[in-house]
Write a structure and sequence with these properties.
Elements: H1 2-12, H2 16-22, E1 45-50, H3 64-76, E2 80-83, H4 97-117, E3 122-124, H5 128-131, E4 135-136, E5 139-140, H6 143-154, E6 163-166, E7 174-178, E8 181-185, H7 195-206, H8 208-212, E9 215-219, H9 242-251, E10 256-259, E11 266-270, E12 273-277, E13 298-304, E14 312-317, E15 322-323, E16 332-335, E17 338-342
Parallel strand pairs: 1-2, 2-3, 8-9, 9-10, 10-12
Antiparallel strand pairs: 1-13, 4-5, 6-7, 7-8, 11-12, 11-17, 13-14, 14-15, 16-17
Helix pairs in contact: 3-4, 4-6
Length: 348
């Protein structure tokens, strides 16, 4: 797979619009010439990060932007696709088990199966619309959602082909490695991480396998800090005690925490920790808490050098089919929970 990817990126040189035309996804009149991601050097790793794919409650279809993205991904030949949650549209008590199962069947048809057929590994965290961990009187409020998600992912036909380190709590939280990179995947579908999971996170990150890895990433649906305007900046829409969690991640030299839910793209750093707030690919993109950019749907490609930690981001505005100019993003955000700086800018 890697050889094919290098060949395509070296002599293919197709624009994003050309790829979409060639696959019959858009008409020629809709195409905008955009570069493919920078060609990779030997030994580099490529990730495609997507999030918040869902539409209205109970939906069994996906927006055209989602379908375009899934059709494009094989041409980029990533080593791994990461999804920061909300793959289906649950979290509504009136949805029946049959409706929940139908949503996961649609996810299989439109998302999981095409990537599996392209031999592209897929890892994910569960979002609040997939399997909310909210509690009432000590019981899961959306127990049926969690059961449906577990049934889908524990089906051997659907379980990702990952090099699991710890899958005892899969699909809710787990860890795996790939290309000597360690991934800690959280159940951050609600604002509070349980004490049991916190203990697991710390033990996982402190393990010899995690610390021997050249990089460490954490993946959870809710962010440590809010970056989007409106209700996403209100408590409950980002993780409680984000400063403590940041300190924990920094203690074990985690490079980046990848999250969704905010529905606004913002690559940041705070202290020594990088924070990728992945924009929504499906319904409901939002504006940042500061700045005047209009909302847009997006996905991000991360290229990781073989021996370094200076990651390269290529992010696509999937509404306009253009590459996001990071210089148009605010240089910093003063969020309700603290100051964030854009990842390419460092304090002098």
């Amino acid at each position: 797979m890697h050889g094919n990817r290098r060949q395509f990126l070296t002599y293919g040189g197709l624009a994003l619009g050309s790829l979409l035309i060639s696959r019959g996804i858009i008409a020629k009149s809709q195409a905008i010439a955009n570069p493919v991601p920078t060609a990779l050097n030997a030994g580099e790793t490529r990730l495609v990060v997507i999030s918040d794919l869902n539409s209205a409650y109970g939906s069994t279809d996906y927006l055209s932007q989602v379908k375009r993205a899934i059709a494009l991904i094989p041409d980029w030949q990533p080593d791994l696709v990461l999804c920061a949650g909300d793959m289906v549209a649950g979290q509504k008590s009136s949805l029946t088990p049959a409706q929940l199962a139908a949503m996961w069947q649609a996810f299989e048809r439109y998302i999981a199966q095409p990537l599996r057929q392209a031999n592209i590994p897929f890892a994910f965290t569960l979002g609040n619309h997939d399997a909310s961990g909210s509690l009432r009187d000590g019981q899961y409020t959306f127990a049926a959602d969690r059961q449906a998600a577990s049934q889908y992912w524990r089906n051997p036909a659907h379980t990702p082909t990952l090099d699991f380190v710890d899958r005892r709590h899969f699909p809710f939280y787990y860890s795996f490695t790939q290309n000597n990179i360690f991934y800690s995947v959280w159940d951050a579908s609600t604002a509070r991480i349980s004490p049991a999971q916190l203990a697991w996170i710390e033990a996982s990150l402190a393990s010899d396998q995690a610390q021997r890895s050249r990089l460490r990433f954490a993946l959870g649906h809710l962010s440590l800090y809010p970056v989007a305007s409106g209700s996403r900046s209100e408590p409950g829409n980002y993780l409680h005690d984000g400063d403590r969690l940041q300190t924990l991640l920094e203690k074990y030299n985690v490079h980046t925490y990848i999250s969704g839910h905010q529905h606004a793209y913002y690559p940041a750093h705070r202290g020594q920790l990088e924070l990728l707030h992945t924009g929504a690919l499906g319904d409901g993109p939002r504006s940042l808490v500061q700045g005047n950019l209009s909302p847009y749907r997006s996905l991000t490609i991360i290229d990781i050098p073989r021996g370094g930690t200076n990651l390269r981001y290529t992010t696509y505005n999937m509404d306009r089919l253009t590459v996001v100019d990071h210089g148009t993003l605010p240089g910093s955000l003063n969020t309700p929970r603290g100051h964030l700086q854009r990842r390419d800018l460092r304090a002098t």
